[in-house]
Design goal:
The complex is a heterotrimer of chains A (249), B (75) and C (242). Helices cover 80% and strands 0% of the residues of chain A. Chain A has 249 residues and is mainly alpha-helical. Chain A is globular, with a radius of gyration of 20 Å. By secondary structure, chain B is mostly helical. Helix content of chain B is 76%, strand content 0%. Chain B contains two helices and no strands. Chain B is rod-shaped, with a radius of gyration of 29 Å. Chain C has one domain. Chain C contains ten helices and no strands. Chain C is globular. Chain C starts with a helix and ends with a helix. Classes of the chains: A mainly alpha (249), B mainly alpha (75), C mainly alpha (242). Chains A and B meet through α2, α3, α4, α8 and α9 of A and α2 of B.
Chain lengths: 249, 75, 242
């Protein structure tokens, strides 16, 4: 068990394993993304209320739901960094932050575009959008802190603390924003739960899209983590060999 | 069995008339988002390898010069 | 000879033990308050900042009493938040520069309580004066009479949370060269729940909404912050100073 754990913490081991995984993940992503997009764009019946704009949901909901997973993931990686001082965990934590900001940003943008159709305005202080916005600020804070601290070791620990504090705060922020909003805007619900009772031709493509975006998330996380590994281990023999073997000019 | 929702290509491209811009702009953003997040790490990686190669080359040249310099007094 | 060293070590050990956590807590609190009273500016600046920011709003929005009444709760709360943010840097900066922060980290008492003492001192210096001044500013913003008690009470519960959360941000950034903006970027999102609940409580009381849940939530956040935030600050200080 502990052997496995320390092996998992070895950046080189992760790099070599992920080299084997990546082609499969790419294949999986392209197949699922292809099926999901074609289904969402061509075959999903127009909603009786929203018409064709229901198709926005197949981008917005997957991206938004995965953006919510990024902060807890960063906090878990941060905890591992602080407790077991595992280098790989910090590389993952560093890579998650910009991806999380991207996901949250796209969720905000697609939510705003959808909102223009649903509420007739590009921006509404809807509970979900508002808590996404604050989550976006939290990601920006973590990225800013990381880039401000020069020593990588101190930056790793400081960002781990901030990620944990933020992750404890995210549910509180979400709850308080929802509570704050109930009086102003009762249930302009465009939520995942509102989708559930719908017929399978609506939610099956949604599930496919969610899974596809999850795989995409995994790929982009692995790619960034691999770069981080190369950067930090650039003086190691195996990285030098890898560079020497590389054919590109 | 799901059925095709559009009878012609132009109907598909305009998304049935209303909200064409909204739907396509979301999918355009999604495409940008996916391709950026796949390409950016590749570019960073390429940059890294280029830099490391240059450094290795320079180190090799440096050590060659040093060995030449150390040879000169003896010859 | 060796016996001497051992007994000396023992007496040292006892000496350290004889300073109880409570004594150290009080000493830290007293020291920070004394420093603040010696440097009058630290005491005055947050209050002046609060005053100036609040008086900018009528100039920027409108002098119309109806309009000001509507936004008064939010303006007072946001200004209190900013005033607290601005004074945060005093919390550890000077101690970091003159090395007394390292002494604090080396002391045998649990850092949790020492950090808590510093946070309480910061609140007494920057938070409490703002709370005391707030009725005057609320009057200038035409806050309805029935909302005064709620406003003061929510500020009284809420501003300590601002000091506690802010302390984490300062502790993380204390070693950095340019930290003003980064501190705000880190801390402000964390303070949104307090702002939301506090400002809403003051607004709701004008509409006669029952306030039990507002105070329960604020109290819960304060309790959580009191327990968790000094822990995070202490961890962050250890990272920043080393």
């Amino acid at each position: 068990m502990w052997l496995w754990f320390s092996k998992l913490g070895s950046p080189r081991w992760f790099y070599e394993l992920s080299s084997k995984w990546l082609p499969w993940l790419y294949a999986l992503m392209f197949v699922m993304l292809g099926v999901g997009l074609v289904w969402a764009l061509l075959f999903v019946p127009a909603d009786y209320q929203q018409g064709q704009t229901i198709r926005i949901m197949y981008v917005h909901v997957p991206v938004a739901s995965i953006s919510l997973a990024c902060f807890p993931l960063m906090a878990i990686a941060g905890t591992i960094t602080l407790v077991w001082k595992m280098k790989l965990a910090d590389m993952v934590a560093k890579s998650v932050a910009p991806i999380g900001a991207w996901f949250t940003g796209l969720a905000l943008a697609s939510g705003a575009i959808w909102g223009d159709q649903i509420w007739g305005t590009w921006w509404a202080w809807d509970a979900r959008l508002t808590s996404l916005l604050i989550q976006f600020f939290l990601f920006v804070g973590v990225i800013a802190l990381r880039s401000a601290i020069e020593s990588p070791d101190a930056a790793a620990k400081a960002c781990a603390v901030l990620a944990i504090v933020g992750a404890i705060n995210v549910p509180i922020i979400k709850y308080s924003v929802e509570w704050w909003n109930t009086l102003h805007q009762p249930a302009s619900s465009i939520s995942f739960d509102a989708v559930a009772p719908n017929p399978p031709e609506i939610w099956v493509p949604l599930v496919i899209m969610i899974l596809a975006v999850y795989v995409f998330f995994a790929i982009s996380l692995i790619l960034r983590t691999r770069n981080e590994i190369l950067q930090r281990e650039r003086r190691a023999q195996w990285v030098m060999d890898l560079v020497a073997r590389d054919q590109q000019k | 069995m799901p059925t095709l929702q559009f009878s012609s290509v132009s109907e598909f491209l305009t998304m049935g008339g209303s909200y064409t811009f909204h739907i396509w702009s979301v999918y355009l953003l999604f495409a940008i988002f996916i391709s950026y997040n796949l390409m950016q790490p590749k570019l960073v990686r390429r940059q890294f390898i280029r830099e490391q190669k240059r450094r290795a080359l320079r180190d090799a040249e440096l050590s060659l010069q040093q060995s030449k310099q150390s040879e000169r007094p003896t010859s | 000879m060796s016996g001497d060293i051992r007994s000396e070590g023992n007496s040292n050990y006892e000496l350290q033990q004889s300073v109880s956590t409570w004594t150290a807590f009080c000493a830290t609190l007293k020291r920070d308050l004394l420093i603040a009273f010696k440097r009058r500016n630290d005491l005055l600046n947050p209050v002046m900042f609060f005053l100036i920011v609040v008086s900018l709003f009528p100039l920027g929005v409108s002098p119309d009493p109806m309009e000001l009444t509507r936004i008064s709760a939010g303006v007072v709360w946001v200004s209190a938040l900013l005033a607290s943010m601005l004074s945060l840097d005093n919390l550890y900066r000077a101690d970091y520069e003159d090395g007394s922060l390292e002494q604090l980290l080396l002391s045998p008492q649990p850092l949790y309580f020492l950090v808590l003492a510093k946070n309480i001192a910061h609140w007494l210096i920057s938070g409490l004066p703002v709370v005391i001044l707030s009725p005057l500013l609320a009057y200038m913003l035409y806050l309805p009479a029935e909302a005064y008690t709620t406003m003061v009470l929510t500020l009284l519960i809420g501003t300590p949370v601002l000091s506690l959360f802010g302390s984490i941000g300062v502790a993380l950034t204390v070693g950095l060269g340019s930290r003003g903006l980064i501190l705000a970027v880190i801390v402000l999102p964390l303070t949104t729940p307090v702002l939301i609940i506090g400002a809403k409580a003051v607004t709701d009381v004008m509409f006669g909404v029952p306030l039990a849940s507002h105070f329960a939530l604020l109290g819960a956040i304060l309790a959580l912050a009191l327990v968790m935030s000094p822990l995070a600050s202490a961890a962050a200080l250890r990272i920043s100073v080393n």
